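pipeline/complex-builder :: batch 7 item 3
reading input block
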Amino acid sequence: MRRERATIHDIAKKLNITASTVSRALKNHPRISDETKKAVLKVAEKLNYQPNHIAAALRNGRSKIIGIIVPTADRSFFSSVVRGIEEIANTAQYNVMICQSYDNYEKEVATVEALLNARVDGIIASYAKGTEDFDHFLKVKNKGIPLIMFDRSSEELEVSSVIIDDYQGAYNAVKHLINQGCKRIAHFTGIKKISIYRERFRGYREALQDHGIPYDESLVIGSNMQLDDGRESMLKLLSLSAPPDAVFSASDYSAMGAMQVLKERNIRIPQDIALVGFGNEPFTWFSEPQLTTIDQRSKQMGNATAEIFLEQIGAKNKPFVPKKTVLKPELIVRKSSQRK
Amino acid sequence: MRRERATIHDIAKKLNITASTVSRALKNHPRISDETKKAVLKVAEKLNYQPNHIAAALRNGRSKIIGIIVPTADRSFFSSVVRGIEEIANTAQYNVMICQSYDNYEKEVATVEALLNARVDGIIASYAKGTEDFDHFLKVKNKGIPLIMFDRSSEELEVSSVIIDDYQGAYNAVKHLINQGCKRIAHFTGIKKISIYRERFRGYREALQDHGIPYDESLVIGSNMQLDDGRESMLKLLSLSAPPDAVFSASDYSAMGAMQVLKERNIRIPQDIALVGFGNEPFTWFSEPQLTTIDQRSKQMGNATAEIFLEQIGAKNKPFVPKKTVLKPELIVRKSSQRK
DNA sequence: TTCTAATATGCAATCGATTGCGCACAAAAT
DNA sequence: ATTTTGTGCGCAATCGATTGCATATTAGAA
């Protein structure tokens, strides 16, 4: 079955024309007669012609591929961002190449290298938790390849980014808890290095302050924010002499862990302890009670990054000015925090 | 900052040698002296040389990229398979290009086309729910490009595939329910077109038969197997004059829907109705009670597909014999079905 | 009728890396 | 002193599509 692959030269030969004409005909060039175009299309079909983007990419210096680096694709947030990117990218004839860093620095570096080798036209990324050094991303930028960060970004990179207003999201969540009558609100936070956690923490703290609730350091627990971490953190809180009456977790995963612990101990949610997560992961909707959380506008985030990419690609020679887009998060109130 | 990209020719010029030598030096060719190799590496470093895989791909006719098509990346099953593929592929210097069909036929066709244009060296796929026509996949096969299907495959394609023994998984699940004392076991099934659902149904039915339980058609409900479908199906079952005392769902998602309904109505799980899902999605572990389910060996599945790919690539000229690998699923018993 | 302007297509270089073949020189074998 | 074997590297073609710059043909203008 292995037919030799047909090229534009094969098509040209059949029609006694040159490859130039075939190339132009296939691209619907205005200076090629309709007659020739039709003939070319017909022969292309017959020969089972398959355009070779590799050859075109080499010649043009553009691969029409956008590389995407996400920590992991199996988080609905990230896959939703990817979908948002694809929506826009596809309309501009771009394809995407999704890569996972698995939140691992080395893998991230290797991935960036692979994407550069593959000569992608741009990279859209959210960096790994383990990343502290941004040289690999700087390299991308210095090669003049558009780089756009989303969700997790770093100031030192000085590239365009799309994030949500983590501060505002956290602030609203905590304000909501206060409105529900909560007075001792705990907070689960992640690695300080990642700005989203710092911002969420800031929102938490300022909301407390603005409502006259004293900040209690013992109520803030840092961890890796996975389910198990949430369990552990909750246990710590319960062992306090004065346990909290609410938990605002900077991640849905650790909020779920906390919920498990509370249910195991027959502590009522939200009456005894109210819970709010962050991320609007699908499982927050499955849980019992359903978890109040904050939606991160993943689809819009994807759209926005892709649009910035297209802008940057379009403005090749103009001086580059990093652009920071901040999306408004949305508090989604569900049973886990509704006391009234 | 936009430096011109350095090529092997630039390196060659600096050293007064030819590009051939540089190319060989970079690939550690034995016929190049260590001295030259060192010099080349040094200059490459200095010029910030970045290999151009596009050029190499064009010349070699191999892109060293494997295209992966999954319905959606945000299902832990699929992302885990991808991870399994990457593990193996990376060791053989292959990179992967993950694409999502969003369970949409048109998008799947377009994706296959894009991957062919990108000249991937092989395609690993699990087809979309909406796919009934396999011409696009046949095209891949007929072009002599290795195509391996996983999880969802089709006999008519006659390509290698890796699946789990859905029949066995279902059989074991139902047998387990029977052992727990269940007598009226319902079943949620998906589109008949997809063989995994047919097989799971067959396992269900034969397990009943082998244990002397009569098959009752009214207990089998077909749907799209999402959370909402599970809710709806459960409601239907509850409205029967003789409701079931167990549900075996061919998907974790619809099992979760059923669980929600049962909890809302204060029907005890597993005492009144026992539940078993399929897939071992992470949320089955979060649920209350935790859901008994069947693990699909996603990582191994990925490993296996990648290994088959490498085999096929290695055996370029030998006659192609499709190879079917069947993995053994594992029943994971949790609270939702443990009556004893 | 001669000249200008479209119109349709060809020529040939180019993108960057790879590789079979060949050549020169040196070391080893006869 | 030849011949053989090996080492280190250059030459030039190749992969397939693209495109600036001709060229040939025809239609319209002067």
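note: Chain A has three domains: 8-51, 63-164+298-327, 166-295+331-337.
queue -> next item
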